[in-house]
Amino acid sequence: MDLRRWRVFVVAGGLVLLALAFWLGHKTTRTVTETQVVPEPIEADPTTPDNQQTSLWAHNLLLNQGPHFRVYVRWIHGRMMRTERNRAPDFDVPSSFVLEIEKGMVDAKLSDTAEFLNSGQRGDPPLKNMKVENRDGEVQISGTAHKGVSVPVRLDAELTPLPDGRLKLHVKKVNVLKVPMKGLFGLFHVKLDDLMPKTNVPGMQVSGDDIYLDTQTLLPPPHIHGHITSVQLLNDRARVIYGGVTESEEQLAQWHNFLRLSGGTVSFGKLTMRQADLTLVDAANDEWFDLDLANYQTQLVYGTMRTTAQAGVEAYMPDLDRLPPGAATAAQGVSVQWLRDRNTTPPMQVAPPHR
After folding, report:
1. Fewer Cβ close by (within 10 Å): the C or N end of the chain?
2. What domain of life is recorded for the organism (predicted)?
């Protein structure tokens, strides 16, 4: 069998399997997926007065959004907006606020995106065992479509921002069973949204040859929102640019790693700060300040806090990966027994005052 006939055989066989998979998939999954309920996205409360809003600045911040996803905030300037009129932004309730970005630069690893979708934290993904990679400036998504039978699929797509803050993946190539198929789909009246039928992943919508991603719905809180001016693919990362950016990577890397909040009301732990003046600083000289809102109180316990002359609070915190084993339960407050004996040493690393 010559090479030309072999190619025809492979394509024909692939189309037969693909058609069978689609037919089985429509029979077994379509009626189920149409009943999925997608939750509403968490949005900022637009009625918050300007004098109750909290300004924020951050540099070199690794912000964990749940156990399976994180973003790398090279720098941002914006506001921490409450999502409920009668509830101040609360560090212990990440859904109580949205980070509205005016200007900034935020990275996300493509491999983290695949890990998050594969985790099933936000519903079953349209493809199983997904991989997301940068291939020559385009997003390459590969995985297995389960449409009655398992079919390996690869999509090559162009990533662009939309005016409403969403991201769009325009699919330019589709390979099924390692055979290019996009140009042949018309023969079977098959579209991309047939290949990946209605998904129950909130924030992901397939329409025609486009995949729309609403990160405020797709990703866990704390949510980040703003006018995206551009999206770049750099090695294994997608870089999102908000507003105008003038500083270079080298200039940004010289800043300390920190998160600063100013104005409005902010709650954390048992404390509520009005006219907020709070700065969280990375105690180490690492590339990124690893801040996890699920464990930030433990990071505070093993850090150092002080009050400024303006009644603000500065906290110097260790990165999450620098906490000792069992840190969450090891750091306890002083007991009455300790208070009774002035000769016992101070807990943790508290230094005695200078005389």
Report:
1. C
2. Bacteria
**Residue 18: pLDDT above 60?**
no
The answer to whether 146 and 154 have CB atoms below 8 angstroms apart is: no
Among 65-74, 189-198, 267-276, which is the least confidently predicted range?
189-198
Range name among 299-303, 340-344, 346-350 with the lowest pLDDT average? 346-350
Q: Where are the domains of the chain?
A: 3-35+123-218, 50-110+222-322
The Cα–Cα gap between 66 and 29 comes to 29
Cis ω for the linkage preceding 222 (within 30 of 0): yes
**Which distant-in-sequence residues (6+ apart) come within 8 Å of 261 by Cβ?**
54, 55, 56, 80, 276, 277, 278, 279
- Read off the DSSP letter of residue 181: -
Of 163, 137, 143, 168, the C-alpha closest to 155 is 143
CA distance 111 to 71: 12
Place of tokens 């180490």: 284
Residue 122: Cβ within 10 Å count: 22
Task: Note the residue count of the chain.
Answer: 355
Q: Are strands 313-317 and 277-282 parallel, antiparallel or unpaired?
A: parallel
Q: How far is CA 33 from CA 116, 140, 198, 240, in A?
A: 21, 25, 6, 31
Q: Reply yes or no on whether the pLDDT at 36 is more than 50.
A: no
Q: What are phi and psi of 342, to 5 degrees?
A: -70, -10
More confident call, 208 vs 249:
208
Q: Residue 129 and residue 139: Cα distance in Å, rounded?
A: 16
Highest averaged pLDDT of the listed ranges 37-41, 194-198, 217-221: 217-221
pTM: 0.78
Query: How many degrees, rounded to 5, is the angle at CA 78 between CA 266 and CA 62?
Result: 80
